[in-house]
Amino acid sequence: MPSLDRRISSSRRALEERRGSRPLPELEEAVRHMDAIRPFTEGIVGEEISFVLRMAEADPAILAEAQDAGAAGLALTLGALAIWGPALSPRETAWMRDYALHQERAGIGVLGDVTNAVTLLAAGFLVAKRELRTVLTAAAAMLGLFALFALLPRAGLYPARFAPLLLVAVTPLWARAAAARIPLLAPIALLIALPGHLRWYQRAPPMATSGDVAAIQCVRRETPPSAVIDGAYGDATQWIPALAGRAVTRPHEHVSLFDEIEAALSRLPKAAFHFTGERLIYGDPAPPAEGMPLCGGKLLRVQSGNNSR
Questions:
Q1: Are residues 97 and 178 in the same domain?
Q2: How far is CA 37 from CA 11, 32, 70, in A?
Q3: How far apart are CA 51 and CA 110, in angstroms?
Q4: Percent of the chain with pLDDT over 90
Q5: What is the 3-state secondary structure (H, E, C) of 270-297?
Q6: Global pTM?
Q7: Does residue 66 sit within a domain?
Q8: Domain boundary residue among 202, 232, 262?
Q9: What single-letter DSSP state applies at residue 248?
Q10: Per the structure, how many domains does the chain have?
Q11: Range with the lowest mean pLDDT among 27-31, 114-118, 233-237, 270-274?
Q12: Is the confidence at residue 247, as pLDDT, over 90?
């Protein structure tokens, strides 16, 4: 059986022969009035049939049909989730609303330093050029979005997750300023944003250090598969289920699964081991424990009577 490379090469040679016998413009003219098709052989003979996929101009009827189909698909998906999707308990719903209100706020920094720098430079340039209408329109759109963000927590929705909508408001400023060919816009924006990028992204401390990762590998060797390990919620203990395959007493929990996770934790045996990571990123440390040190002291085999959940 010929290899895939040979088959593709053969198809390419055949394409060149057919192109010579009947040029592509002539073939386009021949199919101009044919019904639209969706070919499945584009990967091999894409050059030959690419004209079928090109649109000389946008057809409003086709675009409207595509938009209606997309809206219908979204409505069906949301309806299915509402009927057959997961149900939140009152406690989970209250937690989501509180978290959305106090932890997931959408401020001007949510899109990042580069975006803010470009937006401010573009707006300043347009104001200097007295193109106030574009700037005021973008400002009004942003105010409207922030008003929407203030209402989202009431529905249990996180405003920060809708923050990309702000791009719809500010990108007209970029387009207008770019059309005016602002000199050095991109380099200036990058220089302004560089300190923040280094601070918040490149120098952000990870939860698990290299020492933690080595200790978790030791956990896999020193504990049985059925072991339950106690540890803090905000240190490298979080990585033990993924890296060592052992259960922990304070796993990462999604709000929609609070009730299910608590029920599963109640069925676990008491923890026979205690792990302490090098870096506590958030939350409170785990209660202290005593026992035989393992894995460089980061893992303790808990003494009977001192184990915890």
A1: yes
A2: 21, 12, 20
A3: 42
A4: 28
A5: CCCEEECCCCCCCCCCCCCCCEEEEHHH
A6: 0.57
A7: no
A8: 202
A9: E
A10: 3
A11: 27-31
A12: yes
